[in-house]
Design a protein that fits this description.
About 50% of the residues are buried. The radius of gyration is 26 Å and the shape is globular. The chain contains 25 helices and five strands. About 55% of the residues lie in helices and about 5% in strands.
C-alpha cells in the first residue's frame, strides 16, 4: 500500500481488503461489531426454510451465484465437541509420506456386540480425541472424520491414507466380572502394522479413572513413537459422578440413533422417540450431578434438533427454541464461559432470527446481536470451536461482512475439516473468494470441494462459474458439459432453478469468448419467471452477462426489474457495486438507479 510507484500499489480497496484476509479473527469480530448499528437485522425472503437460510442477495454477488446457502446450523453433529482438525503441512513424515504427528483415534469396539458397552466405547474414544486434541504438536482427526471407518473390514493402512495420518489408535472394551479392560494399539499409518500395545484394567465403577488412565497410556505410546515429549494436560473431569458420566454417554448414543432415524424415518416417530429417550437420560444425568453443565447443553442440543424437525411450523419451532435457550441459560449459570453452552445459545438465538420469530424490528435486531455475541465469545474462550465459527460465517454474511464471513468459514474448516456440513463450508469459501475477486482461493476451494464431494452439484457448478473470471479461460464445450452435469446432479426441488442458473453462467462464458449473439440468446432463454425464481436472482445474473457484453442500457433495465423485487438491495449496490458491475459504475443511469434518484 505504500509503494512509491502508484502501479505497484493496490488498485482498489477491495484488493487491499483481500490482502488483509489473514488478519486475526478478533479484528474481524471488531469490524463486524462496529457495523451492527448500521446493518441492523437485514433480511431477504428465504427460498428454503428450515433447510436453508436467507441469502444477502444483491449485496453479495457470491450468494446470488450460490442460490440460497444452507444454514450452518449443525448442533449435535459434532460441532459442539470443539474438536480440532487442522489442515497443516506435515512437519515430519514417515517413509510412507504420512506424518506421525497426524493422529486418528478410531472408534473403540466392544467385542461380542455388547450393547451395554457400546456407549462406554464411544465415550472413551471421544474423550481420548478431546484430550489429544489439546496437545499442540499433534493434529488429531475429529470424531466426524473417523466415524465412517468403524468397520474392521477396511485395511488400516487404507484408513490412514484416506485420512492422511501417520498414526492410528485402535482399541476395544471388554467386561470381565466387575472389571472393565480396555486394550489399545498404536498403528503405523504407512504400513498398517502395530507399533505398540497397552491395556487398562480397572473396576467397572471407576469409569472416570479408566478415562484418565487410557489418556496417559496412549500419550506414553505416542511419546515413544515420536521420540519427543507429549504433554497432555491432566484430565479434569467436570463431574465426579460416574453415574452422571455414564448417563451422558448413554444419552449421546440415543441421540446418534435418533439422528440416523431422521434420514430413513418418513413419519419421524422413531427419531422423536430417540430424542425423548436421550432427553430423559440427560435429565437423569442432570439430577445425578446438578453442578455439571454438560447434561444441560445436551438438552439444549436436542431442543434445537427438535426445532429443526418441526420444519416450517414456526409455532412448534418456537416452543423447542425457547426450551433450548432455557437449558443453555441454566448451563451458563453453572459455567459462564462454557464454549459449548455459548455456542448452543447463540445458535438457537440465530435460528430464531432466521425463522423471523421476533416480529418487532428492534427486538429482532437485539436477538441477532445477542446471537453474534454468544458465538464470538465461544470462539474467544475456545478458538478451536469449529461449529461456532461455521455459524458465524453464515451470520456475518447476513450482516454484510463478506471478508469476515470468509475468515470465519476458513477457521471452521481449519479446525475441523470433517464437520457434518463441510460441503457447505467449502461452498461458502468458494463463493466468498469469488465475490472478493480472490480467484486463486476460489480455484483452490472449488478443487478441494470437488475432490471431497465429487457428486455434489455445487462443486461442478463452481468449475463453470470460474470460467466467468480471469482465473480460467472460457471453454464453451466444457461449459455446456458442466452445465448439463450441474442440472443432473442438483436435487429435484432445486433442479429447475439450478438448470437455468448454469445456463446463465454459460451465457457469461460465451460473452467472454467473444460470441455476443450466442450469449444474448442463451441469457434471454435463462431468465426464468417468478414461479422458478421469485426473488429474480436469474435476472440479476443476466445483468452481469449484459455488462460483459457492454449492453449497458439493457443491463440497467434488467437491474430495475431485480430492484423492484428486492428494493432493500439498492443501498448495498450504491455502497459497493462489486466486480460484476464495474463496467456500469460510471454510467449516469446506473448511478441514478442505485442512488434512488
Amino acid at each position: 500500500a505504500l509503494e512509491k510507484t502508484p502501479a505497484d500499489r493496490f488498485q482498489t480497496m477491495r484488493d487491499f481488503s483481500g490482502a488483509l484476509a489473514d488478519a486475526e479473527a478478533d479484528a474481524a469480530m471488531q469490524r463486524t461489531a462496529a457495523r451492527r448499528a448500521a446493518t441492523g437485522a437485514r433480511r431477504v425472503p428465504t427460498r428454503e426454510i428450515p433447510a436453508a437460510a436467507p441469502s444477502n442477495l444483491g449485496r453479495n454477488r457470491a450468494m446470488v451465484i450460490g442460490g440460497v446457502v444452507a444454514a450452518l446450523l449443525i448442533i449435535g453433529g459434532g460441532a459442539w465437541a470443539g474438536l480440532r482438525h487442522r489442515e497443516t503441512a506435515p512437519s515430519a513424515a514417515d517413509a510412507g509420506g504420512l506424518d506421525a504427528h497426524r493422529v486418528a483415534v478410531l472408534y473403540f469396539d466392544s467385542p461380542g456386540g455388547s450393547d451395554s458397552l457400546h456407549y462406554l466405547a464411544d465415550g472413551l474414544t471421544e474423550g481420548l480425541i478431546r484430550q489429544l486434541s489439546g496437545v499442540q504438536t499433534l493434529d488429531v482427526i475429529s470424531p466426524n472424520g473417523v466415524a465412517p471407518y468403524r468397520s474392521d473390514s477396511i485395511p488400516r493402512d487404507s484408513v490412514a491414507r484416506a485420512l492422511n495420518v501417520g498414526t492410528l489408535v485402535q482399541g476395544g472394551v471388554e467386561r470381565s466380572g466387575g472389571r472393565v479392560r480396555v486394550t489399545v494399539r498404536l498403528i503405523d499409518g504407512a504400513s498398517g502394522v502395530d507399533y505398540k500395545r497397552a491395556s487398562v484394567d480397572l473396576p467397572a465403577a471407576n469409569v472416570l479413572g479408566i478415562q484418565d488412565s487410557l489418556v496417559q497410556k496412549v500419550a506414553e505410546l505416542i511419546r515413544q513413537r515420536l521420540g519427543e515429549e507429549i504433554k497432555v494436560r491432566q484430565q479434569h473431569q467436570s463431574t465426579t459422578s460416574a453415574q452422571a458420566w455414564i448417563l451422558v454417554q448413554r444419552a449421546q448414543e440415543a441421540r446418534k440413533r435418533a439422528e440416523t432415524a431422521l434420514t430413513d424415518d418418513s413419519t419421524g416417530q422413531r427419531a422423536a422417540r430417540g430424542f425423548e429417550e436421550a432427553d430423559s437420560l440427560y435429565g437423569r444425568a442432570q439430577a445425578a450431578d446438578p453442578r455439571w453443565a454438560e447434561p444441560l447443553v445436551g438438552r439444549a442440543t436436542l431442543a434445537y434438533r427438535r426445532s429443526r424437525a418441526a420444519g416450517q411450523d414456526p409455532v412448534a419451532a418456537k416452543g423447542w427454541i425457547d426450551k433450548g435457550v432455557k437449558f443453555a441459560d441454566s448451563a451458563l449459570a453453572l459455567s459462564p464461559q462454557d464454549p459449548d453452552a455459548l455456542e448452543a445459545r447463540g445458535t438457537l438465538r440465530y435460528w430464531a432470527w432466521l425463522l423471523r420469530l421476533e416480529p418487532d424490528p428492534v427486538a429482532a435486531k437485539k436477538l441477532l446481536a445477542d446471537a453474534q455475541a454468544d458465538l464470538e465469545m465461544a470462539t474467544k474462550v475456545r478458538p478451536a470451536q469449529a461449529g461456532a465459527w461455521a455459524i458465524l460465517s453464515h451470520l456475518y454474511n447476513q450482516t454484510g461482512g463478506e471478508t469476515d464471513a470468509k475468515l470465519a468459514a476458513r477457521r471452521a474448516y481449519e479446525e475441523d475439516a470433517y464437520l457434518s456440513n463441510a460441503d457447505q463450508i467449502l461452498s461458502r469459501l468458494f463463493l466468498a473468494s469469488y465475490d472478493l475477486e480472490q480467484f486463486v482461493d476460489a480455484v483452490h476451494y472449488c478443487e478441494e470441494g470437488h475432490r471431497r464431494f465429487p457428486s455434489d452439484f455445487k462443486f461442478v457448478s463452481c468449475r463453470l462459474w470460474l470460467m466467468t473470471t480471469k482465473a480460467k479461460e472460457p471453454d464453451v464445450d466444457l461449459a455446456w458439459k458442466l452445465a448439463d452435469s450441474t442440472a443432473a446432479l442438483a436435487p429435484p426441488e432445486r433442479r429447475a432453478f439450478e438448470t437455468l442458473k448454469a445456463r446463465m453462467a454459460v451465457a457469461a462464458v460465451l460473452a467472454r469468448k467473444g460470441l455476443p449473439d450466442s450469449a444474448r440468446h442463451v441469457a434471454s432463454r435463462s431468465r426464468g419467471g417468478p414461479d422458478v425464481d421469485p426473488t429474480r436472482d436469474l435476472v440479476y445474473m443476466n445483468v452481469f452477462v449484459q455488462t460483459l457484453l457492454n449492453d449497458h442500457d439493457e443491463a440497467i433495465k434488467s437491474l430495475k426489474t431485480y430492484l423492484v423485487a428486492n428494493p432493500g438491495e439498492r443501498s448495498g449496490l450504491a455502497e459497493d457495486t462489486g466486480w460484476w458491475f464495474r463496467g456500469l459504475q460510471d454510467d449516469p443511469k446506473f448511478k441514478q438507479l442505485v442512488q434512488g434518484r
